Amino acid sequence: MDKVLSDKRVIALYVLPSLLLILAVVYVPIALTGYYGLNEWNGIGAMTFIGLDHYRALLQDRTFWDSAGHSLLLAVFSTASLVLYFIVALLLSAKLRGVNLFRKIYLIPMLLSSVAIAQLWLKVFHPSSGILNRLLESVGVANPPAWLAEPSLVLYALFVPILWQYAGFYILIYYAALVQIPSSLVEAAKIDGANAFQIARKIKLPLAMEVVKVTVVLAVVGSLKYFDLIYVMTDGGPNGASEVMASYMYRQAFKSYDFGYGSAIGFFLLVICLVVTWGIRKLTASKDKIEYS
Amino acid sequence: MFKKSGNILLLTLSLALALAGCGGGNGTAGDAAGNASGSGSGGSAEATASGGNESGSDKVEISFMHLWPEGISAGQNKIVNQIIEQYETEFPNVTIKPEVLENEQYKNKLKVLSASNQLPDVGVTWAAGFLQPYVEGGLFTPLDDLLGGELSGKFVNGTTEAYAIDGKTYGLPLEFNITPVYYNKAIFEKYSLAVPETYEQFKQVVAALADNGVAPIALGNKDRWTGSLWYMYLADRFAGQEALSNAIGGSGSFGDESLVKAAAEVQALVDAGAFVKGFNGLSNEEGKAEFLNGNAAMYMMGTWELPNFTTNEDIPKEFRDSVGFFKFPTADGGKGNIDSWVGGPGVGLFVAENSKVKDEAKAFVEYFVQKWGELSVTGAGVIPATKVDTSALQLPQLYVDLFNEMNRASSITLFADVQMPAAAAETHLNAIQSLFGKAVTPEQFSEEHDAAVSEAK
Question: How close, in Å, is residue A103 to chain B by CA atoms?
Fold first, then answer.
């Protein structure tokens, strides 16, 4: 058996199916998308090769950069909220009474599809009958804003359900990392007189750091390509105030029938994601690894 | 746990996720397009299926995609099923395979299917600007021979023309719509308001309602074409039908003084609190709900909405009985005629150019259009694009009144977003939302339009 598994040809044979699959469904479409970006194409008729014109136009497209700014803002918010998720995970991993219930509560949004979450929050944000404005009115706010119709507010209003939606996911990851930490380390620290904050800061955070790095990448890249909830809730409006890169790509390709330009945006988005991922890896690369056995 | 090997594994995993994720964002685009390049030799699954049936015996399968789901358009859905059933009984060798999608999804799917050349044999399309790329891409087949046959002279004047490009007709219209302002008689009575006949009176009605804390107009402008209707009417009444049509068609300009005035009037209405709170963040369905709940006094919408005000049992009879309509009032000094409408043919049917059962599909379309004309009046309460004798039928008064208005119309301007090519329509719709949200001035609004229309030509 060992002999078979160390045979390079056998390894190649086993890897081949999934390799082909990945090539076909991931890398080939990516390459094609890049190529379509070089063409003037409405998605139906004939393609006209125009070289880098779309990419050049993209660099000067104010709407695109606005949407990129919105995506970036979302990425900043998501990353910042990781702190909150980590604290919640810390509390959950402590053996407190009633923690079990909260573990389940935080996971619920993960079980819902984005569209269901969007419908739910549309009801919450409804300008006249929504629960949020009803609450505000009942505590004396005379004229609460129409959250999703105010260009200056809409983006922040959308961040709430988005952050809520992913809370369970990150809390779960952190929780899993934290419960892996051997209790002997924590107990030793306790005997040495460390308080809960010191334990979290000096022991738990460093030991969970590798996981934190991964979640930062996930949060940033996830934010940059975020689409579904925004599409359902505001469709990028009003006046493009909540347009993000992915929804702008969709608008160009499917609504303006500019498939070539939409593909260029998609490809550009991929490049941005890769650069950002690489950047985060570089920034967070630690020299001294903390290990325990 | 986090030894080096685990480390690398995690990071590779995250990188792979990032990559896959980024790819996922445009996966549909890439996939669909990927299919397109390969479909020349492969052919579509749909076509192969029906082709296979053909070779076996005389049995024919026609795939048919439409946009009347039971939950949203109950009346229309019932009629479609009825027609299909009848057709299959009359022609036992034919099987119709329907597929139903909701409006926006339908448009998206049609787009993807056409990119991969897998259109259904028969499907639903919109007129003019929507139709254009499909025709230019050679995806729809001309249906002129059907116009000369049994359907000759059956269509209401001006309906099939909107489906013609370069002298050939690529779709047969099913519906014909005009857009009145519906109003809640009970609310008007409560505040002793009269139906406005001039724009001045209309503004007084709006002010009176707003003063009493009633939202004057239900509007869901997240969908943007809803706001476009208001601009269209103001433009028509101030500048006249011709100036508006010319501007949309590119021979005139949106910079026309009266057209700019119309855009300014939109903002004046917003300032007067004419529209429900948060209208730019509400979908048409949500906006409509404000009217159906009796929270808003007026609602402007196409006649496809009629069943909700006449026969739809899900809506309280008390409300349905209190719905009336009026024509958009004339403006003092404006060039528009009160009998000039915004509207036009609604959806129509196309037959795919590369359908394996083209002749059978055409025969089905011919049959469908005819039956639809008869059934849509009594069954769904919508106005068909074919001529119907309504004198012998027992119909709701609201329906009859609007039907008569349509026959009296001095002109009917096709919805701007349907009339314009897709890219220009998108600019128009965005500009409408900005105009309502006061993010642009009326002058900027006009300039954006002129730029988009001239670029699209």
Answer: 23
Whether the complex's predicted ipTM surpasses the cut of 0.95: no
Residues of chain B neighbouring A225 (CB-CB closer than 8 A) = 21-22, 24-25
Asked if B38 is an interface residue toward chain A (Cβ–Cβ < 8 A), one would say no
Distance separating alpha carbons of residues B173 and B169, to the nearest angstrom: 10
Integer Cα distance of A270 and A53 in angstroms: 18
Q: Encoding tokens for residue B192?
A: 């002793």
Chain B residue whose CA is closest to A34: B30
| pTM given for the model | 0.83
Mean pLDDT by runs of 10 across the 293 residues of chain A is 77 92 94 93 85 93 94 95 94 83 87 92 93 93 91 94 93 93 90 90 90 93 94 90 94 89 94 92 74 58
Lowest mean pLDDT among A58-67, A98-107, B24-33, B55-64: B24-33
User: Pick from B3, B279, B426: which is nearest to A149 by CB?
Assistant: B279
Residue labelled with tokens 């006046």: A239
User: Could you give the C-alpha distances from A7 to A1, A17, A19, B109, B170, in angstroms and in order?
Assistant: 10, 17, 18, 47, 62
Nearest CA in chain B to A127: B278
**B-chain residues near A274 (CB < 8 A):** 18-19, 22
Report the candidate in A267, A48, A64 with the shortest Cα–Cα distance to residue B30: A267
Residue B145, number of CB atoms within 10 A of its CB: 11
Asked if A26 and B423 come within 8 Å (Cβ–Cβ), the reply is no
Query: Which residues of chain B lie closer than 8 angstroms to A27, CB-CB?
Result: 23
